[in-house]
């Protein structure tokens, strides 16, 4: 490949490599899917240290230009072509952020592809003919058993395979529980405020009325809950989404008292509890009241959203109704993937993957916090003991809208608390910065670009 570097000291070697590769991709000389030299080959060709090339590639991967995969030759990202061609002459392709700080997706570039492939192969080899037919709508017994063992061991969930239902992600799980509750006469469901808007829509579609319940640093507020007159409640107790608060022991006890007195149902969304960095993880609420709590989990944060795998542990009195809703929805989740996941769990692959990723995310979080402390001393950073994002609260007179706009112009996409309030929510301007998808070498530059965006809104 025709690349060259100059050693006249005017530009860093890595920057020269990045600029030339970025230019070649934008101008279409390097097409989507095209392979680029390995870091070792390019370092050799240019006579530079391999680290310089590794960092340049990591930057281009963070910007969306390259796809890096362990054991495979780096190549130009598949997403690049359409975007560049659809905006000819544009500087940065509009839809491709240089830095994606949205708190949504884990680092899917680290998905354990070869381990998953082995498990898929084994599933195809060992599944019986009968297992290729319509099965139990609750899901494959092998997976329900493997998950029950995993959830009991890792999250303290009182799970038995008979009361588990495998779903297409958390979202479907919440949907079928809400429909089952509505069919039994439930009318009002509490949601933490702020919370995930899509999940509120799922509950609304099931015919339930959304009731906002405020959240503070200790989690959901019990005084509001007492006044709310709800039949059910969706909660993220291990790591409130999106504030990052952990429901305190005192609130947990109060919540359980409310739950029993009211004979309500809690849907416990345990979406990212495996990521806890500074202390041991808090166990799931479910183990404390399994007859009134539906436990809901997902592989979307631990592995990848593309798997569309989730699970429920359902109280006995709701089991038939929720199983019926699952059956009506799709006659059951795809079986081959369920068998592959069962083997993946039984072989300890998920434990290994999480151990590896926890270390990686912790380093990214620590560097992000250092950079933010230096660059934005006026900000208060919260919610970083667990999960995959930080909440960054700014002084009252900062303008979230203007910051988002300026950040976008600098190639930084992020979300703010505004995206999660139940209208007409209010609160201090707060940025949500996901660090799962941004590699270490790109973090300082991303924070620099973000800070520049924030400062530019203060100069007007
Ligand atoms: C709060 C919360 N719960 C659950 C999920 C997982 O949803 P699903 O399993 O449908 O991908 C997400 C994913 O973004 C989330 O933000």
Automatic annotation (TrEMBL):
Superkingdom field: Bacteria
Coiled coil: none
Domain HTH gntR-type per the UniProt entry, residue ranges: 11-79
Claim: Transcription regulation is one of the keywords in the record: yes
InterPro entries given in the database record: Aminotransferase_I/II_large, HTH_trans_reg/aminotransferase, PyrdxlP-dep_Trfase, PyrdxlP-dep_Trfase_major, Tscrpt_reg_HTH_GntR, WH-like_DNA-bd_sf, WH_DNA-bd_sf
SUPFAM superfamilies, per the entry: PLP-dependent transferases, Winged helix' DNA-binding domain
Signal peptide: none
GO molecular function: transaminase activity
Pfam family, one: Aminotran_1_2
Keywords per UniProt: Aminotransferase, DNA-binding, Pyridoxal phosphate, Transcription, Transcription regulation, Transferase
Annotated family: In the C-terminal section; belongs to the class-I pyridoxal-phosphate-dependent aminotransferase family.
Protein name per its UniProtKB record: PLP-dependent aminotransferase family protein
Organism (species): Streptosporangium oxazolinicum
């Amino acid at each position: 490949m025709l690349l060259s570097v100059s050693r006249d000291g005017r530009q860093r070697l890595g920057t020269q490599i990045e600029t030339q590769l970025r230019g070649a991709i934008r101008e279409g000389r390097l097409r989507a899917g095209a392979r680029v030299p390995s870091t070792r080959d390019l370092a050799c060709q240019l006579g530079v240290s391999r680290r310089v090339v590794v960092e340049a590639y990591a930057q281009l991967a963070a910007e969306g230009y390259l796809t890096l995969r362990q054991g495979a030759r780096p190549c130009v990202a598949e997403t690049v072509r359409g975007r560049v061609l659809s905006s000819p002459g544009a500087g940065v392709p509009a839809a491709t952020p240089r830095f994606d700080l949205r708190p949504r997706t884990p680092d899917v570039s680290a998905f354990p592809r070869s381990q998953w492939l082995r498990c898929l192969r084994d599933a195809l080899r060992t599944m019986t003919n009968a297992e290729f037919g319509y099965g139990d709508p609750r899901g494959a017994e092998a997976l329900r058993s493997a998950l029950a063992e995993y959830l009991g061991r890792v999250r303290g969930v009182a799970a038995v395979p008979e009361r588990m239902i495998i779903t297409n992600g958390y979202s479907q799980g919440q949907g079928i529980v809400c429909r089952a509750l509505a069919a039994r006469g439930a009318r009002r469901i509490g949601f933490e405020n702020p919370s995930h808007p899509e999940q509120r829509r799922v509950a609304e579609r099931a015919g339930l009325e959304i009731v906002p319940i405020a959240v503070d640093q200790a989690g959901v507020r019990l005084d509001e809950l007492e006044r709310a007159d709800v039949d059910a409640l969706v909660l993220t107790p291990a790591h409130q989404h999106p504030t990052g608060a952990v429901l305190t022991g005192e609130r947990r006890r109060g919540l359980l008292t409310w739950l029993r007195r009211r004979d309500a149902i809690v849907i416990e969304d345990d979406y990212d509890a495996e990521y806890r960095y500074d202390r041991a993880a808090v166990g799931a609420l479910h183990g404390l009241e399994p007859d009134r709590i539906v436990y809901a989990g997902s592989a979307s944060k631990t592995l990848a959203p593309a798997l569309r795998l989730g699970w429920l542990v359902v109280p006995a009195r709701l089991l038939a109704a929720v199983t019926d809703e699952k059956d009506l929805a799709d006659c059951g989740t795809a079986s081959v993937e369920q068998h592959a996941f069962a083997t993946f769990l039984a072989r300890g692959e998920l434990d290994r993957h999480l151990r590896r990723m926890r270390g990686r995310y912790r380093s990214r979080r620590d560097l992000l916090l250092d950079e933010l402390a230096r660059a934005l001393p006026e900000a208060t950073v919260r919610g970083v003991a667990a999960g995959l994002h930080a909440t960054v609260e700014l002084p009252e007179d900062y303008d979230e809208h203007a910051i988002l706009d300026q950040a976008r112009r600098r190639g930084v996409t992020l979300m703010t608390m505004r995206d999660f309030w139940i209208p007409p929510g209010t609160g201090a301007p707060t940025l949500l910065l996901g660090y799962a998808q941004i590699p270490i070498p790109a973090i300082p530059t991303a924070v620099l670009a973000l800070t520049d965006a924030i400062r530019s809104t203060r100069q007007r």
